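Hi all, posting the design record for the shared folder.

TITLE: backbone redesign
STEP: 1 of 1
STRUCTURE INPUT:
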């Protein structure tokens, strides 16, 4: 009988379909990795930008004269409040090593904020707090770069 050509054609179709599905699956996984990396980059950038803005505002507050304690406290809390949303976004996407360092970094940021609320000048009385904050920032930054494989030469 002439079943042999029909079986050969059927086997060829199964092989072609299987390889097409395999290639498509790999392509989808690669695109998912690219999209996830891009999302992490955006979240990391928002997180670091929010902290940079907060740090700038706190430095300005620390040298500002003529502010009441209440006004200084309100502005310091407002400056730090801008860091909440990026921190929650970070909690969704970042791996545990980044989150752990980010928690420490946020703790340093709150300590710095509290120092400003007390009325201290960061340049003259807050050097230790600022150093701890900047060291924590550097650790978070390095962990984020490692997570994104940004340190790999390519």
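Okay, here is what came back for every position:
SEQUENCE:
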């Amino acid at each position: 009988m002439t079943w042999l050509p029909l079986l050969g054609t059927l086997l060829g179709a199964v092989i072609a379909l299987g390889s097409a599905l395999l290639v498509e699956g790999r392509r989808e996984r690669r695109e998912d990795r690219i999209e996830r990396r891009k999302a992490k980059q955006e979240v990391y950038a928002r997180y670091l930008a929010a902290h940079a803005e907060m740090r700038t505002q706190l430095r300005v507050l620390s040298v500002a004269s003529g502010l009441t304690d209440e006004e200084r406290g309100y502005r310091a809390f407002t400056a730090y409040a801008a860091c909440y949303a990026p921190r929650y976004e970070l909690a969704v996407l970042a791996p545990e090593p980044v989150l752990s360092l980010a928690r420490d970094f946020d703790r340093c940021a709150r300590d710095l904020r509290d120092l400003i609320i007390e009325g201290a000048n960061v340049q003259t009385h807050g050097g230790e707090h600022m150093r701890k904050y900047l060291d924590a920032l550097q650790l978070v930054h390095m962990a984020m770069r490692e997570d994104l494989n940004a340190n790999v030469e390519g």
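COMMENT: The helical segments are 3-63, 69-81, 84-93, 96-117, 122-125, 127-147.
Let me know if anyone wants the other runs.
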